[in-house]
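Researcher: Next entry in the queue.
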Amino acid sequence: MALVFLCASGVGTLAHASESSLEATAPFLGVVIPHDSVDLSSKFESRLERLEVDVGDTVRQGEVVARLDIHPVVQELAAARASLQSSRAEEQASGLALAEAREKKSRHFTPRSLELGVYSKEELATLRYQERTALARLEASRARTREQQARVAELERNVNEAALVAPFDGIVATRPVSPGARVAAGQPILRLLGTGGWKVRFAVPEEEARQLEPGSPLELSLQQRQQTLAGHVESIAPEVDAAARMVFAIAAFDAHPPETVSTGMVVHVQPGPRQGAIGQRESSDPIPTRSGR
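Model: Structure for this entry, 293 residues:
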């Protein structure tokens, strides 16, 4: 049996409730997270040349936040463009060789010459071989040209993406790399938290997760603000966390939450009716939450 304090008319009353009753009313524990978050990383191996922002700075969408050293990439791009030019010249030469082989073949393979047997079978076979060889060389040179074109396009993208920009309005949360450091492709350089909206990440015991589905109504109680708002389940993780034996889910607010809401606020989540804002509700006692342990 668990002890639960119930407040009625301002008077505390000691009551007994079964563990099953507590589990039926206890909310899930959640936390406010930004609607958008991203780890900005390099698309290619390079050196971090400069950071334009620091932790805690506010950034606007499209603002440059970091720059990578592009000097080695520019040199590679120049070499790749030269190789592409060489491949195109080789392709042109192979095309001329094929045209010559076909022209020579057409002169020998006339109906009249074949009828009279002017040329030997060996001569005709040689002409066929020369045409096939010229065609194969042309196809190979075309393939090399396509390969060099792809390489040039990749290096041009790297040059253009050497300046990292914020994909949305937000605030810099972490900066794990310092200017001058080498960064690998895909290595995070900055973590950006969006300021364009909020959602709630909460944990549900494994046995109760099947009762929720995307769209299910929720009551989201902001503990620091003593306010309860309406929301709904946005998504549910497809698997159970092995350590906690909990299923993590994301809830969205039905209406834009107050401006006082911020990342890290504790939220108590309960199934609720399908309606708009629940409104503001004050509570004198803390609500027991399901820890799943």
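Model: The two ends are 17 Å apart (CA to CA).
Researcher: Noted, moving on.
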